[in-house]
Amino acid sequence: MKQFRAGDTYYILTDMQELPDRFGVGDKTVVKGSTGHDHTIKNGKFFVGTSPKSILVVGYVKAEEDCKLQHPEHDDISLDIGIWEVRRQREIWNGLEKIVID
Amino acid sequence: MTDYIDNIKTILDNIDKIPDELWVRRERVNQPLDQKQFIILHEYNEGGYDWESERLELTKDGELRYAFDSGCSCNGPWENLSDKEYEYKKCENTTKKSLVVTLDEITKVFKERYDKSYDDEKPPYPWNESNTINDLVTLLGKPDVSKVFGIRNTEIRRCYVKNIGYEKIKKVFDVKVIDSTTDNNGKPMELFDIEIKEEIDKNPIITIDRYLMVVDGSSKRQYLLGVPNNIKTCHFAKAWTFDIHPDDFNPIIET
Hints:
Largest interface: A-B, 42 and 44 residues
Oligomer: heterodimer
Helix content of chain B: 25-40%
Shape of chain B: globular
Number of helices of chain B: 7
Largest sheet of chain A: 7 strands, antiparallel
Radius of gyration of chain B: 21 Å
Number of strands of chain A: 9
Distance between the termini of chain B: 40 Å
Radius of gyration of chain A: 13 Å
Strand content of chain B: 15-25%
Structural class of chain B: alpha+beta
Order of helices and strands of chain A: EEEEEEEEE
Largest sheet of chain B: 4 strands, antiparallel
Strand order of the largest sheet of chain B: 1-2-3-4
Shape of chain A: globular
Number of strands of chain B: 9
């Protein structure tokens, strides 16, 4: 299971061939950090979607040839062709689980 | 509401002290911002829609912008910036600029919405409990090691930890290290417990919280993330933060 971490997001290569139509039109931006640390995709698209596997799944990246994940503060990461699951990060604060907000 | 406005005044008065890394230019979908525009604050609350967003934006020039929006799952709270038209825009991606406002105008808008929230018998809107703004005010104040773990925003907490020093925090809290190792990129990780003593209604309360210290692969920044108390290893803790079984957690790259 190929996987990598980019800051507070996690990417796992899935064996999915297609995404359901209900996931809508793909976007170039994956995660929009509250302080502007946006993760964007080159040669691919991000589709908002959920997964029964985890509540932290926020969508999927459909990677084409020479696909790269870019971030203003992180090095570029090359993504193999395919569909990647995207997860946010969580933590416990004040006794409750919350999404890591930067 | 008074506290909130006072906090905004404090931020505006200390705008030069906000660390550079919190000022990041943002280019939203459908709304490229010019080079001078930086956004650091936004808030969410829960309502009848999937999401509602109440934002106060601040530019490096000390300019305030206010925006309110809400919507459903077909769009995201970051995509739109509309003011008062959100009811009609909830399923559209619109290109709306936020309003540049003065502090007096902000006070007026907030008061109107605050009063309305009581008229409608809804709970008060979150600006009274604005964690991000409170966190920023804490960061701009005198460093106080006892406030580190009360900061909700992870990035602001990181700046606070940097100002004080991780080693000093460990010493002051007399932390108990549970596990220490390195990640796949050779960056250190540490799992530790802190003991927080409080007094509520004259009753002493002791809480033990477990934290994972991780270092960002690219920026080398040091983050402290809260994790469950039953986790015994750094690897398990980091896997937990992404809801992945530790046996399956093996990132080939970490940036």
